[in-house]
User: Which sequence fits this backbone?
């Protein structure tokens, strides 16, 4: 049920080139208690007045100079295509005029001279429909906003779980966990530089933190060994790839599928000397090639229990040396081009 106050506060616009007609309708509306009524005898002002007032109803004459009622109808339809609330009041009562006006968006049609009671009834009926339509539209906006907010909360929660899952693995050999933050952001901007879409690059940002999740299954005596691994220990270490893929595979999620792809391929090398499948060149999925560069650069420039941090210059020299061997040459070139952005991330997420 619409409150009477809401109806009487509705915004009404009168458009008629005859001042006497405007005055008559204004008095009728005033007697009925409508308090937000504006009027114009200049049809060229209708569009701006309609938008400024956010009109709930237009009472429109057809036969006017400069812009006739049909042209006004077309203008209003442009700015309010959903439900322009227009009652045509005119002496042109022929069938052709009525059909033309209704076709252009008029919602009701009343011939002059009109009966006051009939006009007020039609105005009220039209306003009730308009007010309910606006209320429904606003409610839909509110509900849509609530759904979007809830979806964002769920997505943010999911991504936070993913990040923390990645850090859980890193904490076993990297006490701060900042490595996965840096390398994932390096991966994102490198992928963008290489032509990946923003949406996919953002997915890579959120998938790459899980690249070494399989380390969870590696024994401490191997994972945390301060010296060089022997052949058997190295074989055990390599199994973290299979463990990671097993953890991440099988989900009905593009993000998890990308995470599994990264986990499986970020230790592959451009020349085929990597593991676990000894893939070469572009047979290595793009995400794996990108993460390989980002991961190694951050690992080299970060202090670990078993090594000192390399200088930026020494790490860059290594990337250049390994271009075409460990890394895709084009990605090395792009990485060096975006190096200022890489270093900003490195500084922002310093240990």
Assistant:
């Amino acid at each position: 049920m619409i409150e009477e106050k809401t109806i009487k506060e509705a915004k009404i616009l009168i458009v008629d080139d005859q001042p006497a007609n405007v005055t008559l309708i204004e008095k009728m509306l005033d007697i009925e208690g409508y308090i937000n009524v504006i009027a114009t005898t200049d049809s060229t002002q209708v569009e701006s007045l309609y938008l400024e007032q956010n009109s709930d109803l237009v009472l429109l004459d057809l036969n006017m100079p400069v812009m006739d009622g049909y042209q006004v109808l077309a203008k209003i339809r442009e700015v309010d295509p959903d439900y322009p609330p227009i009652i045509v009041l005119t002496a042109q009562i022929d069938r052709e005029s009525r059909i033309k006006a209704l076709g252009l968006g008029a919602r009701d049609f009343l011939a002059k001279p009109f009966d006051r009671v009939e006009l007020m009834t039609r105005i009220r009926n039209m306003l009730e429909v308009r007010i309910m339509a606006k209320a429904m539209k606003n409610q839909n906006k509110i509900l849509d906003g609530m759904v979007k907010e809830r979806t964002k909360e769920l997505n943010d929660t999911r991504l936070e779980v993913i990040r923390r899952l990645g850090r859980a693995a890193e904490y076993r050999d990297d006490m701060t966990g900042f490595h996965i933050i840096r390398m994932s952001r390096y991966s994102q901007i490198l992928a963008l530089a290489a032509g990946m879409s923003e949406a996919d690059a953002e997915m890579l940002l959120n998938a790459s933190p899980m690249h070494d999740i399989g380390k969870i299954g590696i024994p401490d005596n191997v994972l945390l060994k301060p010296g060089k691994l022997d052949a058997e220990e190295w074989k055990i270490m390599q199994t973290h790839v299979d463990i990671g893929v097993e953890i991440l595979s099988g989900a009905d999620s593009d993000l998890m599928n990308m995470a599994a792809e990264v986990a499986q391929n970020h230790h592959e090398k451009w020349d085929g000397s990597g593991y676990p499948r000894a893939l070469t060149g572009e047979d290595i999925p793009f995400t794996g090639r990108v993460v390989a560069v980002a991961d190694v650069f951050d690992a080299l420039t970060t202090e670990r229990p078993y090594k000192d941090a390399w200088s930026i210059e020494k790490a860059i020299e290594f990337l250049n040396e390994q271009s075409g061997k460990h890394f895709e040459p084009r990605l090395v070139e792009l990485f060096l081009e975006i190096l200022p952005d890489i270093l900003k991330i490195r500084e922002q997420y310093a240990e």
The chain has a mean pLDDT of 89.
